[in-house]
Amino acid sequence: MQTATNAEAGPVRPEDERLGLAANLAYGMQHILTMYGGIVAVPLIVGQAAGLSPADIGLLITASLFAGGVATILQTIGLPFFGCQLPLVQGVSFAGVATMIAISGNGGIQAIFGAVIVSSLLGLLITPIFSRITRFFPPLVAGIVITTIGLTLMPVAGSWAMGGDRNAADYGSPANILLAGLTLAIVLLLSKVGNAAISRLSILLALVIGTAIAYATGMTDFSQVGQGPVFALPQIFHFGYPTFGVAATISMFIVILVTLVETSADIFAVGEIVETKVDGRRLGDGLRADMLSSMLAPVVGSFTQSAFAQNVGLVAVTGVKSRYVVATGGLILVALGLFPVMGRIVAAIPSPVLGGAGIVLFGTVAASGIRTLSKVDYANNMNLIIVATSIGFGTIPIVLPTFYHQFPAWVETIFHSGISSSALMAITLNLLFNHFTAGNSDQPSVFGAAAERTIRYTDIAQLEDGDYFMDGRLYDANGNEVPLVRPASH
Question: Taking the CA of residue 8 as centre, how many other CA atoms within 13 Å lie in the half-sphere pointing to its CB?
């Protein structure tokens, strides 16, 4: 009877694995430590640009932690029609930083919140369109996007390794880079240990050991931990009620479109890593959770929510695929939002330590994309040039962040992200060459032909029945040699 019941229920998905409370807490904390620096950076930058006081900026950070935790729980556990039930950590999206700073210059923080609410509602309404594009995300497109995600995040790891704060006197100092290198070495050594638990916790243990080394050498301190309240509830509309403007909403809606593209890429990426099925319905549920979280976040003082790509890398590194681990991480984020003292403890982890671990994490994302691209068929088609062009296009804003500064703001908003740039290019070229095949030549270009030896149809048409090759010469059915015309030299 038990066997029949299990058979009816279907196979257990990898993401539904239950590891127990202790493992969930350990691996969940590892996820939060990985993304903590990123989730507090956006409210810090936007709050300073909006002219908020240090106390109010602190409330923005606390609100972002709380909202990210709730969004993570919704995405991983899910409700009917909301949540993809995959191990995705949610948090404040970096995609809208420039746009929100521009909006704050005209209407303050209240105008940002109003634009986020309305544009997220519009995003929620159009998710059915995005949920029907799964067939346009074959391994070719998914691999390009996953690879670019890893490449996009590498400058973040490098900046962390140098100290994180570009205005600091010790930014890029040998001491900072040495601490990052030491943390990287610890990750690698712990990963080599035969014990599976230690290997899976290598990132978390390296962060703890690296922080301990930094504390012993005077590179960090915990003096700020005891300052401020221990417990604080999120305050509803603490910064005033949102204001609404057409221009602000339109500019923010462009950000929402970019967020939908990036979240789609992250959902497909983690699905590939977990080795589970991601269909149109599941993608739609994930995007709806993203938009609902973004729409409600301003109520407590936060901004647009999106999946964190660096945590996709952590899933790949550790091999821990359980969504309940990430849901536990969401609970930890909620706790950090309710207990500011915990946030101050995590904030004491020095940036170089995060940078050393980030090299492994973000590099693993790129490696996962390369592994996906290895499954692509490159024989006599244009897939090679699609990969080359898309990754090259996505790399431009990574190596030259000012490349689009002279373009209109909406162009820069869309293409300043290497992830969205490569995703849009990969989707477009895949449609052009692999779906809209009318007009495609039967003679592949030099890029397609370079993949392997090819023979033109026109050449084959010149052969007659009984023709054969021997020792590099062509003979007809009677054994007479057929002269070959050599190609003209160039």
Answer: 5
The parts of the chain modelled with pLDDT lower than 50 are 1-9, 451, 489-490
Give the Cα separation of 312 and 266 in Å (integer).
7
Whose structure tokens read 């479109």? 257
Give dist(CA 296, CA 55) in Å, integer.
Answer: 22
> What is each CA distance from 346 to 34, 368, 384, in whole angstroms?
10, 29, 44
The tokens of 140 are what?
Answer: 């070719």
Number of alpha helices (DSSP H) and beta strands (DSSP E) in the chain:
19, 5
| Neighbour count for residue 388 (Cβ, 10 Å) | 12
**Structure pTM?**
0.70
Which element (helix H / strand E) includes 279? none
Nearest to 445 by CA among 389, 394, 486: 389
Both tokens of 290, joined, read 């993203």
CB < 8 Å & 24+ apart, contacts of 226-233: 226/341, 227/344, 228/58, 228/340, 228/341, 228/344, 229/340, 229/341, 230/339, 230/340, 230/341, 231/338, 231/339, 231/340, 232/62, 232/338, 232/339, 232/340, 233/338
Tokens of 69: 């935790």
- Residue 91's beta-bridge partner residues? 306
Q: What is the DSSP letter of 16?
A: G
Q: How many C-beta atoms lie closer than 10 Å to residue 57's C-beta?
A: 18
342 vs 345: CA distance, rounded Å? 5
In degrees and rounded to multiples of 5, residue 84 shows phi and psi of -85, -5
Secondary structure (H, E, C), 427-481: HHHHHHHHHCCCCCCCCCCHHHHCCCCCCCHHHHHCCCCCCEEECCEEECCCCCE
**For residues 355 and 158, is the Cβ–Cβ distance under 8 A?**
yes
pLDDT computed for residue 457 by the predictor: 60
416: nearest Cα among 96, 35, 47, 41: 96
For residues 51 and 380, what is the distance between their CA atoms, to the nearest angstrom? 57
**How is the beta sheet containing 468-470 ordered, strand by strand?**
468-470, 473-475, 481-482
Nearest residue to 443 via CA among 461, 458, 423, 425: 458
Per-residue pLDDT at 246: 86
Strands 481-482 and 473-475: antiparallel
**Phi, psi for residue 463 in degrees, rounded to 5:** -75, 150
Q: Which residues, other chains included, contact 74 with Cβ-Cβ below 8 Å and sequence gap of 6+?
A: 82, 83, 90, 289, 292, 293
Alpha carbon 224 to chain centroid, angstroms: 32
Identify the three-state secondary structure at position 245.
Answer: coil
The C-alpha atoms of residue 96 and residue 112 are separated, in whole angstroms, by 10
Give the sign of the dihedral formed by CA 60, CA 61, CA 66, CA 68: positive
Distance CA 279, CA 286 (A): 11
**Separation of alpha carbons 398 and 404, rounded Å:** 11
Distance of alpha carbon 354 from alpha carbon 357, whole angstroms: 5
485: exposed, middle or buried (Cβ count in 10 Å: 0-12, 13-18, 19+): exposed
What is the reported pLDDT for 55? 73
